[in-house]
C-alpha cells in the first residue's frame, strides 16, 4: 500500500504531490479547459478554476516578464512546499507515522508555500505595490487552503526525511 510504505518520506511525497498538482492543473491546457467548461458561480466550477492558480506557460505571444513571473510562481510553489514540509514540526513531533499532525503539517506547508510564492513573485511585476503583494499572497493562501489537503494526504505515513 502506498500510504504505508516505510521508505516514503513525508517531505518527498508532499513535494511530489505539489509538483503533480502544478504540472497537471497549472498547465495551459487545463487552465483553458477550466475557463471554457466550468461555471465560476458554482462551488465546483470555482474550485476547478482555482486548481489552475499556479499557471505556467510558454506562449510566445506573452511578454517575457509575464512568462517568467507565472513560471516562477509555479516553481516557487513546489520549492517552498518542500522547504515548509521540512520546517513544520507537526509530523516530526508525532509519535506514530500517519497521524493527523502529518496531514495538517502537509496542508499548512502548501498554504504557506502558496502565499509566499505569490508574495515573492509580485516583486517581479512591472509596477509592484504593497497592496498588490498582499492581494496576491491572499490568493495564494486561499489556493493552498482549498487544494493543500491533497498534499496533506500525500504526507501521511511517511517518515521525516532522516532516519
TrEMBL record:
Transmembrane residue ranges: 12-31, 67-88, 100-120, 140-159
Keyword set includes Transmembrane: yes
Record keywords: Membrane, Transmembrane, Transmembrane helix
Name of the protein in its database record: Uncharacterized protein
Amino acid at each position: 500500500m502506498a500510504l504505508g510504505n516505510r521508505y516514503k518520506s513525508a517531505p518527498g511525497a508532499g513535494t511530489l504531490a505539489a509538483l503533480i498538482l502544478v504540472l497537471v492543473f497549472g498547465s495551459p491546457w487545463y487552465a483553458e479547459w477550466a475557463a471554457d467548461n466550468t461555471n465560476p458561480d458554482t462551488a465546483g466550477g470555482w474550485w476547478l478554476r482555482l486548481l489552475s492558480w499556479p499557471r505556467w506557460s510558454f506562449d510566445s505571444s506573452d511578454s517575457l516578464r509575464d512568462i517568467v513571473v507565472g513560471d516562477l510562481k509555479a516553481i516557487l510553489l513546489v520549492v517552498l512546499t518542500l522547504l515548509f514540509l521540512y520546517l513544520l514540526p507537526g509530523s516530526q513531533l508525532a509519535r506514530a507515522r500517519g497521524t493527523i499532525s502529518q496531514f495538517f503539517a502537509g496542508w499548512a506547508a502548501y498554504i504557506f508555500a502558496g502565499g509566499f510564492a505569490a508574495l515573492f513573485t509580485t516583486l517581479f511585476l512591472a509596477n509592484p505595490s504593497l497592496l498588490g503583494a498582499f492581494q496576491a499572497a491572499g490568493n495564494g493562501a486561499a489556493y493552498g487552503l482549498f487544494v493543500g489537503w491533497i498534499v496533506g494526504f500525500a504526507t501521511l505515513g511517511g517518515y521525516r526525511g532522516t532516519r
